[in-house]
Amino acid sequence: SGHAPRGRTETDMVRLVERTAEDMRALAEDKGQVLSLDLKGPGVLRVDEATVRLALVNLLDNAIKYTPHSGAITVGSRIRGDEFLIEVTDTGPGIPAEHRDRIFDRFYRIETDRSSLAGGAGLGLSIAKWAVEANGGRIELEIGERPGTTFRLVFPMDRSNSR
Q1: What is the pLDDT of residue 159?
Q2: Does residue 36 sit in helix, strand or coil?
Q3: Which terminal CB of the chain, N or C, has fewer other CB atoms within 10 Å?
Q4: Does position 5 have pLDDT exceeding 70, yes or no?
């Protein structure tokens, strides 16, 4: 609905990522997928924990939906310069080039039949984008040479949101 997050508190981002991934692990295991963690930190930031978690749940849900049986999903965190990064990488089919500019638009679905079969309404990535931006960050899509997708949540580690 576009409402602002409730309030920012000091949050251990590595622990938040770990807990969220563990909460989603059963869904991945039901599809025979391997969900692995590669968490580095530390990263204590002033964020609204619920909205950051919402962004991460949406990214993990998409990765689980669109990664084939026996695929792999990796959730990582690390510090790059003055930024804290959270990455969700999957071995799914990837996102075709012609759709990359619109994937964060509300109700946009790459393939209507694929999304409706998986139960998607085309809101997950727009919600993730809003949630990250509401916490002063940005979301990036990385496309590599091999199949799969990496979404990266980038949060600045400046005086206003880190310690």
Answers
A1: 54
A2: strand
A3: N
A4: no
C-alpha pair distances (Å), 118 with each of 36, 66, 106, 136: 23, 8, 17, 31
Using the predicted structure, report yes or no on whether residue 11 has a pLDDT greater than 70.
Answer: yes
pLDDT at 144 over 70: no
Write the burial class of residue 32 (CB in 10 Å: 0-12 exposed, 13-18 middle, 19+ buried): exposed
Q: CA 99: distance to chain centroid?
A: 18
Question: What radius of gyration, in Å, describes the C-alpha atoms of the chain?
Answer: 15
Tokens of 116: 């409706």
The letter for the amino acid at 115 is S
The encoded tokens of residue 147 equal 């199949």
d(CA 76, CA 40): 7
What is the average per-residue pLDDT within 27-50? 93
Measured CA to CA, the distance from residue 109 to residue 50 in angstroms comes to 25
Taking Cα atoms as reference points, which of 42, 41, 33, 39 lies closest to residue 61? 33
Within the chain, residue ranges assigned H as helices are 13-30, 49-66, 112-118, 124-133
Q: Taking a C-beta distance cutoff of 8 angstroms, is the pair 157, 82 a contact?
A: yes
Q: Helix 49-66 vs helix 124-133: angle between axes, to the nearest 10 degrees?
A: 150
Closest CA to 14 of 64, 71, 78, 66: 78
Supply the pTM of this predicted model: 0.81
